[in-house]
Amino acid sequence: MEEKLIKIINTILKKEGRTELNNLEEDLSLRDDLGFDSLNLAELTVRIEDEFGVDIFEDDIVDKLSEIINKINGSE
Amino acid sequence: MKWIIVTGDTGGLGSEIAQTILEDKEYGIIGISRKENEVTKALKKVYAERYIHINFDLENPNEIKKLYLEKIKKVGKIYGLVNNSAYAYDDIITNAKIDALETMFKINVYSPIMLTKCAIRDMLLYQTKGSIVHITSVCAHTGYKGLSMYAATKGALEAFSKTTAREWGEIGIRSNCVAPGFMETNMSTTLSREQKDRIYRRTSLKLATDPKSVGETVRFLISEKSSSITGQVLHVDNGTI
């Protein structure tokens, strides 16, 4: 799961010309550390939903990578 | 194949829009309405490979996510959405009933918004520079007695479309409206001949709006020929000025 998630995040980081991730640091903030804006977050949401069948923003706002991992694990 | 969702494809205008888009071989249509009819059966016969109909009641906006995930997404990448389906609750304001208003807003506003959500999410996933077209109405711009509440739903869609255009323009997704004048379709069957003639006399061309002209305008807005047009309302109303 983690490899697939890194790949998804890096697809967006690459497009934005930012440094890609080598591993998942759970404390990283999507907005503050990775610089995701609302459109990046929307793309992340649809890519995660397509891969894992879970809509990470359906119930509340997520920001830390750990929160995304929990959402994905919670749905499996 | 460029798949376009067209709601209300069983109706007079919806079937015209579907047919007009299907004349162009690069497009396929996913028609959505409550129940298949003779029109959709005929389209299926002629365009077996490029026309699909899904029975769905747009009075259930809560079910649209399921509709997208279980049916629409399986057809293919979504290139366009035409929100055409509409419910007309006509009455003067002093008779307004909340149940009828709720039904109308679900069909005319909430479902188009939820379908737009699904279409944009699909476009984001596949990086599609897609096009969204909402069918609104001349009555959102020119007052007609008894149509205030219906006009409110169409005005809501036009405002929604403009901000959609602003919000998603930077990734190449366009959103526009086509505002038709009164047509000789089922939507206007409650009007008497005399009322219709009075409405047509208000137009520059003194005629009922031709659904074919509306269909051609929608096809233009869906296609890349309109690549620099977004956030607009095109009036196809015989010049109701």
TrEMBL record, chain A:
Kindly list the organism's lineage: Bacteria, Bacillati, Bacillota, Clostridia, Peptostreptococcales
Sorted alphabetically, the keyword list is:
Phosphopantetheine, Phosphoprotein
Q: Which InterPro entries match?
A: ACP-like_sf, PP-bd_ACP, Ppantetheine_attach_site
Please give the name of this protein.
Answer: Acyl carrier protein
Which spans of this chain does the record mark as coiled coil?
none
The family database entries (PROSITE patterns) matched by this protein are listed as: CARRIER, PHOSPHOPANTETHEINE
- Where do the TM regions start and end? none
- Provide the Carrier domain boundaries: 1-76
Automatic annotation (TrEMBL), chain B:
Sorted UniProt keywords = Lipid metabolism, Steroid metabolism
InterPro entries with a match to the protein in the record: NAD(P)-bd_dom_sf (IPR036291), Sc_DH/Rdtase_CS (IPR020904), SDR (IPR050259), SDR_fam (IPR002347)
Which SUPFAM superfamilies does this entry report, sorted A to Z?
NAD(P)-binding Rossmann-fold domains (SSF51735)
One of the GO BP terms on file: monocarboxylic acid metabolic process
A Pfam family found in this protein is adh_short_C2
Presence of keyword Lipid metabolism: yes
Family assignment from sequence similarity: Belongs to the short-chain dehydrogenases/reductases (SDR) family.
Q: Which PANTHER family match?
A: 3-OXOACYL-(ACYL-CARRIER-PROTEIN) REDUCTASE (PTHR42879), 3-OXOACYL-[ACYL-CARRIER-PROTEIN] REDUCTASE FABG (PTHR42879:SF2)
Protein's recorded name: 3-oxoacyl-[acyl-carrier protein] reductase
**Source species of the chain:** Natronincola peptidivorans
